[in-house]
Each structure stands twice: as C-alpha cells, then as structure tokens.
Amino acid sequence: MKNFFGNPRLQRYGRTLLILLLIIVMTGPEGNGSQPTSGFTGSFGNHMSFFGFFYPQRWVVFVLLAGIIYGVISSVKLTVHWWRNRAIFRGDTYQRISRTVVATKRRSRLKSTRLGFYALGLAFALYFPHLVTDQSWQTLVVQDVLVYLLLALGLNVVTGFAGLLDLGYVAFYAIGAYTTAWVTGSLPTPPPFGVHWNTFVAIPVAIVFAMLCGVLLGIPTLRLRGDYLAIVTLGFGEIVYLFINNSYGITGGSTGTNQIPFLSFHLGPIKYLWGLIPEPYYYLTLAFVVIFLIVFSSLEHSRVGRSWVAIREDEVAAESLGIHPLKYKVMAFAIGAASAGFAGVVTASQTLFVTPPTFTISFSINILVLVIFGGMGSIFGVVLGGLVVQGFVAYLTHSPPSVYNAADLYMYLGALLVVMMIYRPAGLFPSRRRLRELHLIEGGVAPDTLQVEIGAHRVQEDV
C-alpha cells in the first residue's frame, strides 16, 4: 500500500485532480440561505457539456480533464527528459562509429514514427467535420483555431526563427482581409482595373500584397534591434488600424466594408461555391495550413533557416560570417506575412464583412501568446499551443460556463503567459536547439565549452 501511494505518477495525478476539484467548486453554482449546501453539491452533480460531445455530471468532466492534462504534462516531461539525456559522442573511433550506426538507425525509426504521427493527425483532421457536425462548432474551428494557427505559424517565422519581436503582426492580417474586399469590389475604392474579381482570385493577390507590405516595412525598420524594433512594429500595426478605421472614402472607415461575396471557383466545367456551410472553408483552410507547415519546415532546415538562427543568436557574429542580416530579416517579414494574408482572405470571405475592431493590438498579443506557449522556433510546438489554447477558447465561446465572462479572456491569456514565463520559458514543446542552449546556459557552461559542446552535438546531428 505504501508503494502504491508513493508512486510519483499517482501523486502527480492526485495533485492535478485536487486542483481541478478546487476549480469545480470555484466555478460551480452559488449556494443560498435556504439550501447552504446546494452550491457544493451542484458543483459536482450538475450536468455540463464536455466540449459539446456529451453532457455528463460536472465531476466526470473534470476527472476526464485531469486525465488529459496529466497525459499532456507526462508526455512533455518524458520528451524533455529524453532530450536532456541525449549523449554526446565520446570514446575511441570504434565507439564513435558504433554509436553513429545506432543513432542513424534510431533516427530513421524516429523519422518513420514522426511521419506516421503526422499522417494520423492529418487523417483525424480530415475526418473531424464528420465527428463534429454542429455548424457553429465548425465555424468556430475555422475562425478561432485554424485561422489562428495560420497567424501563429507566420509569426513564428518572424519571432521564433529570426528573433524579431513583431507586436504589429495583426496589420498583415488586416491587409489580407481588406485586399480581399478591394479585389471583389466591396470597398468605396474601385477594384483593380475596374473589374469585380472572383473571391478566389483574392487569395494570391492578398498573399503577395501582404508579403510586399512586409518588405516595405522591413527595409527601413529592420536596421533596428530589440525593443526599438518592437516599438516600430507596434506603431506599424496602429498606423494600419487607424488608416482603415478613419479612411471612409477608401476602406469604409469604422462602418466596415460592404458585403463580400462568397468564395467560388470557376475553371471551365468545374464550378464550386463555398456558401454559408463552414465545412468547405474548413477543408480549404486546413489545406493551406498543411502547405504552410511544409514550406516553413523546409525553410527551417534550409540555408535560409540556419541564417535566421544565426542572426537571432548573434547578429554581429552572423554578419562577420558573410550573412547579410537585413536581407534575411526582410525575407522573414515577407514570408511570415504570407500566412497572415491568406488568413485575412478566409476571415473576409466567410464572415462576408470586415470591420476595423477585429485588428487591434490585443489580437497581435493573442497570437504572440500562442507562439510563446507552444515554443518559439518550434513548428510542432506552435501548432500544439494553437490547438490547446484556441481549442479551449472555442469551447468557452460555444459553451461558456456560468462564471465565464468573455471580457476576461485576455486576462486569462495574460495569466497563462506569466505562468509560462516562470515555469517553462522555452514553451510547451520548444525546438531542440533552443532547449539545448537553455540547458547549457543554466548549467553554467563557459563560452569556450559551450562552443565545443554545441559543435559536438551538431556533428552528432549531421552524421
């Protein structure tokens, strides 16, 4: 019995369960004078929705949540423990060769496992609309999860890969949305060439226009560094917001745009209209999420990605090695803006109406929270963080508890950001390089030793 209760895993699960039981009572119904225990019993006995799938008693929901949280935390700890215990090659030549062969085989198995995991995740994502048929839920998944994933992936390129703190990233999202309205003739400004183009045509136009704005912003401002750059990007976001909010003759001002037509595709005999049903928007957005995941992952492991990392770690050293910082910074801004441009198209075409309050600074902070929560520089971490945080936000929007107030959302996100900075500054699933650097620095590794250790680890990865 002593060994049973002394099990560390059981203790961790018990602590998680106790915290959730406390949350049950805190978020449960209030008691009254005639029935003083009704609040306590109702906290456990009342029924509530489990993400819209079924409606068990409250204690069942929180026990299931405790199991999910315990599983996520245990998986993260196991992953971190595995990375920490990766051995650096030592010993004679024979041992190095044998370890190289073993590491290569292990890496091939891990690669096969990762590909299988990605295929399983994609299959689940493709089948998801058949599991959740509620159209309000599907709409929330598109607008509150997939669109945010696109934005978080783009901001991760700028902030995670290149190390450029962009507080005005929402401006590119607004540019994509208003470009869609402009191309389709939904603004007071005449559309290009006086032709009301198909909404599908707005996809490449919005992406290119957002990337062009990233270049125009980057060339004069990316000579700055650190906090100065963050302030300039914050100003850029505010400039775009004030422009679309006050330019009534160009953008429609605070009243918003005119009605934007649905997405439609016409190519010879092939014709398709998206309409009001959210499922087609889900599959279109999912397809572009996968495309951007492939593109950004390829860039991360390319010469461009390594140049971004070099600039992020030490811009002066990178420049001394022949890397042009301004060139690669502008590339990061332009490439990161591409996904935001497409996200703007999805929002404009599905909501059929765009207003300036959608593109405030708080939106940029929300996206930054997803990147920090998942792990800056880690594509998988950003996707995981986006799914966890925005999935929970979508649940609160669809089935809000009685104690939840929508105006308090950013307070919760701010608290989450503070907790992550204290207990897990590298994020939920950080990149291998950033995690290794943090561990070496925390271990008090001297600069010379740090260079040797990182070099040895790089040899191990390249073999």
Query: What structural class do the secondary elements suggest?
Result: mainly alpha
What spatial form do the alpha-carbon principal axes imply?
Answer: globular
Gyration radius over CA: 25 Å
Strand order of the largest sheet: 1-2
Reported CATH architecture of the largest domain: Orthogonal Bundle
Unreliable segments of 5+ consecutive residues: 87-94, 446-463
Helix content: 55-70%
Count of helix runs = 18
**Strand percentage:** under 5%
What fold name goes in the CATH topology slot of the largest domain? Answer: ABC transporter involved in vitamin B12 uptake, BtuC
Mean pLDDT: 78
* Structural domain tally: 2
**Biggest sheet record:** 2 strands, antiparallel
CATH class of the largest domain: Mainly Alpha
Give a written overview of the molecule.
The protein has helices at 2-5, 8-27, 38-45, 58-84, 93-131, 135-161, 170-183, 202-221, 226-246, 278-300, 303-313, 315-320, 325-351, 361-374, 379-398, 409-423, 432-442, 447-462; strands at residues 264-267, 270-273. It is an all-alpha fold and 463 residues long. It folds into 2 domains: 136-428, ABC transporter involved in vitamin B12 uptake, BtuC (Orthogonal Bundle), CATH 1.10.3470; 431-463, no CATH class. A two-stranded antiparallel sheet has the order 1-2. It starts with a helix and ends with a helix. The model is unreliable at 87-94 and 446-463 (pLDDT under 50).
